[in-house]
Amino acid sequence: MQTGEVLRRQVFNLLDAAKGGRLKKLKEVNKHEIVEGVTEDYMERRVQTLLSYVKQHSPYYKEHPEWTKLEDFPVMTKGDFIEHYDEVLVDCVREQGNLYRLSTSGSTGTPFTVLCDGDKMSRVNMNFISCMELNGFRMGMKRGEFRAWIKGKNTISKWKSFKNNLIMVDISNMGDESLDKICRDIEKKKIQVLVTYSSALTALTQYIRKTGRDISRWSVEMVFSMGEALPQETYDLTKELFGFFPVRSYGNNENGFIAIQLDEDPEYTVDLYNFYPEILKLDSDEPAEPGELGRIVVTDYYNKTFPMVRYDTGDTGKMRVYYDKNGRVHAKYTEIYGRRGSLMYNTKGEPLSIHVFMNTLLKFEGTVYQAKCIQWGEKDYELLVNADRSRLDETELLAAYRHYLGEDAELRITYVDQIPIQASGKFMVCENKWNGRKQA
């Protein structure tokens, strides 16, 4: 336990106690409700309170008094919210001071900023801490955040970095030189928690294994994976290297963390305290059947500035809902497939998890540096490859992808020098550009 960690935790607790201990209470309730579930009454009450509020204060929803229950309200994509931005904002937003901005970098080509008040911002922060603490995090621990940090865009000040005990770990380039520097920084700066996108974690752990790097002097106690789905191979390798399992999470910048892995549960526990989750069919706004792949839609209970009712996150997954012996409600995402633009189909029209493409890449470690599979048609695929061509067996690579895409896949290779990491820090291993009926 580092001195800086203890001091920051004490300062946080003292400052919060001086204000009535609200943040601590919020955090503890959040943790309790994630683990123990919520009551049906709570869900119904929160939904009705939110719907009544938006019909009174949001010009967009005011126009439709006939919308009385959640199913009546339209499902809104990021594009829909952007189109109706000023109408969705509550009436008194211009009179509110100290508004906060929840911004997504636009990794799918659409930057988006959601405004919120101090209460929602506190909930976002305590939600993050709650998800971390449920997996062993201690307030004040030094964490390294892996992102494509861009000066003047998303970097943070030295004061904020010091206050939050946060180290900016730049992953704009994930070549061996950059990874060597990242490893040296982790050791030298005594980083305790790695908060990273799964693609960056995959690159880091593969590099450690490939180089046989000694990490015994590292101070890392926790690895927190965000963004795209974490391949099982990376999960297992992280556990092998560090001696503990990485934590899988699901969320976004607009709302916060929506679901979290608890212990080594392969499923994601949904935060029913802050969100009402739905899985809707891929081609309609009807509820998906239990266990059916569908669109992940969430209603955010607590953003009173920019209400997000039935927000289509752009991701796809499967969910199960169940009741425990006390009658409390629990929800689990049993599978998260990621962005619909990354939802690929094999030649039979069956959906493929992003795991498929990540796992395939791992088989060619050291030869294929990057690869991205693009679907152009029902059976038409292109494979962008950055590799050591002198060592690459094309036939073997094509066969590995056809194993999942289908033996009748029309698959061609295009060699490139680099496949850029997106501004968000994510690297997309697949993309659906098909205009056919299966593309979202």
Automatic annotation (TrEMBL):
<dbReference type="InterPro" id="IPR042099">
    <property type="entry name" value="ANL_N_sf"/>
</dbReference>
<dbReference type="InterPro" id="IPR053158">
    <property type="entry name" value="CapK_Type1_Caps_Biosynth"/>
</dbReference>
<protein>
    <submittedName>
        <fullName>AMP-binding enzyme</fullName>
    </submittedName>
</protein>
